Amino acid sequence: MAESNKMHLETVIAKDDFASAGEASSKVKKTLTMLGVAPAQIKRISVAMYEAEINAFIHGGGGMAYTDVYPDRVEILIEDHGKGIEDIELAMQEGYSTASEEVRMMGFGAGMGLPNMKNNSDNLTIDSRPGEGTKVRMCFNIGN
Amino acid sequence: MNVTELAEITGGTVLSGRESVGNSISTGYCCDLLSHVMADAPQNCAWMTVLTHTNIIAVAELAGISCIVIPEGIAVPPATLEKADSEQIPVISTVLGSYEISWRLHEALQED
Ligand SMILES: Nc1ncnc2c1ncn2[C@@H]1O[C@H](COP(=O)(O)OP(=O)(O)OP(=O)(O)O)[C@@H](O)[C@H]1O
Ligand SMILES: [Mg+2]
User: Fold this and answer.
1) 112 residues of chain B, pLDDT tens digit each
2) Fold of the domain spanning B3-111
3) How far from B7 is each of A35, A88, B19, B91, CA to CA, in Å?
């Protein structure tokens, strides 16, 4: 990867399109692979981003994913304009979930998404307002 | 152990992702909660799940899973198989249950 190389990716997280949920993360994974980022780094970025993307889809009614790749780090912003998170500290707890029965039947709702984001990123910031939406920012140090 | 061999020892059929049947399998993993799969599925595992919707393909691709095994003869929707083909994720269907599949995989891996 060239020192000054900075890649910017923007992907729509489509509302109501279940089949394409996860595609923003897949796109980033493919780009990072192409750029030669170490597999272990790609794995944790993929896991954390997928969780944020799925939350924006399931809980936030869709949104946008922005990814910036720098030589030493990857920054990801996932944004939605859904119902927002009432109590972020509570939402961060393992096992806490407000997922509907319908969504649980599909394997979502373990209440592990936010803990997975925390465990796999070097920095996680959540900015959420009830009724307005949620912004999840994650930073990953990838060395170099 | 690769995907073709796993299909053979479980009497299963590879339904999709046939370009990737040479994917090597180093262990097995059983779980139907996607966030647990993302957190814990080992790289290059065979993932046994009763979930069959399209999102399992994204999970498998992102988590570095070698193949998905659908047990108990559960039908897999065409949309899932289409996505599996485009992401080159092999999906095996077998009538066996997850315990029996795991047992056979374990035995075969011991011999490898
Ligand atoms: N983007 C969002 N908009 C609104 N609420 C959210 C958002 N992200 C998370 N939440 C709230 O935080 C809770 C916990 O999120 P988390 O991702 O940890 O678990 P989950 O999505 O319910 O289940 P899992 O991710 O394990 O499938 C959610 O159930 C939901 O109430
Ligand atoms: Mg979640």
Assistant:
1) 999 999 999 999 999 999 999 999 999 999 999 999 999 999 999 999 999 999 999 999 999 999 999 999 999 999 999 999 999 999 999 999 999 999 999 999 999 8
2) 3.40.1390
3) 34, 45, 14, 10
The best mutation among A59, A120, A128, A132 to test binding of ligand 1, ranked by most ligand atoms within 8 Å of the C-beta, falls on A59
Q: Can you read off the two tokens belonging to residue B3? A: 């995907």
What are the residue boundaries of the structural domains of chain B, listed by start?
A: 3-111
The CATH number linked to A97 is 3.30.565.10
Pair of tokens at residue A65? 């994913």
ipTM of the complex, rounded to two decimals: 0.93
Instruction: Answer whether B63 sits within 8 Å of A43, measured CB to CB.
Output: yes
pTM for this predicted structure: 0.96
The boundaries of the domain holding residue A23 are 3-141
CB contact under 8 A, B87 and A25: no
